[in-house]
């Protein structure tokens, strides 16, 4: 699509797959309308984008690389994104290195001015840079607006830093009454406040979701308490329509697309449980053992994505698999009842297959919205970050999932947990969704409805499609007004 005087947009993702991949999808939305997008990334992260944009017009989309200052923060060369290592301390170093990208990004932007900067809300320096260059900035957040609005309500009512001895708390002055059985770590509340502050300094926030899911009541509440516009543009991943596009989105899988499809094509509709906890959530052997026992006891077929033990290459294959119950592979994998994937999996492609009937997830927002867009109900197992907030939207507010019973709110995804989720809890949650019955059918019906709403939102005339066109018009007006001054 040719556009008269297209916008020039600069996009700056945070180096984590869960941040880069959805912003890549957002970039594609703008590029598909003929607007010029420059994506700033680092050498080891280029592979997340090259396949996604291989079919795009190079005059519309381009990738600019800047060096990642790994050595300055004590990281080995090539460690440039979250999930490239399971070292719990590496995450903090990657964050510090990402903050040092300010200088190279500013140098590039001064030499090649943009009409707007769209950057991850983790970067505190973006708003100052945009102000200096006299251009608008939009904050991309990988959170749902439900979560952002809920946390802002906690903050406004001085409940974000609750010091009571009780681990439970109830959110007040919010469109929904939500009670949590556990409190977030203090370090997390500090970091999320910083992100909220960064968002509020921007000209608006971009949400990778759709208005019908967060709800008009939540959108109105957020805009009322902050005075800021939230642009729902998602689910942006739905722009990847073909099987090939879905399979190539993100990192490279060690298992071929043909192998996935051949395995799934042999299964009945809604018969397979898909299990994945994202790219930066790592369970230790004791918990993996409980998962294996729980899913086998449920009797249901499964695809289970288990992260690689990066940084432990010296372990033998037998040591790496010692968490599997005796005979598990013979009873399940060799008999074609289950498939274990070690490393990256093409999640969107798997979730879109009719054989998949439920998704056990950590409730990261990308995984959540991908399941909802596919009409797949979820078994929620939050671990860290904002995931416990997302769980409440899925289970209590929208009724499109069931909780496994996780109660330990961790600071990071790579740290060992003190509390195990038992095999009995896992089996019970799986059976609630996969065994059938009135409750499961009602959850499945509601999830299908939200899947239809998600797909409708991104089609012409849908809520997210209208938001995209309105945002483009707003950015054009700001550009043209600046040029008239």
How would you describe the overall organization of this protein?
- The chain is of the alpha/beta class and 485 residues long.
- 43% of the residues lie in helices and 14% in strands.
- It has 20 helices and 15 strands.
- It has helices at residues 17-31, 47-50, 90-99, 102-111, 126-133, 145-156, 186-201, 211-214, 216-226, 243-248, 257-265, 285-298, 317-320, 328-333, 347-351, 365-374, 387-397, 423-434, 438-458, 463-484; strands spanning 8-12, 36-41, 61-65, 116-120, 137-141, 169-171, 178-180, 205-207, 230-232, 272-276, 301-306, 338-342, 356-361, 378-380, 401-403.
- A seven-stranded parallel β-sheet has the order 3-2-1-4-5-8-9, with helices on both faces. It has a six-stranded parallel β-sheet with strand order 12-11-10-13-14-15, with helices on both faces.
- The mean pLDDT is 90.
Question: Which terms would index this structure?
Answer:
485 residues, alpha/beta, 7-stranded parallel sheet, 43% helix, globular
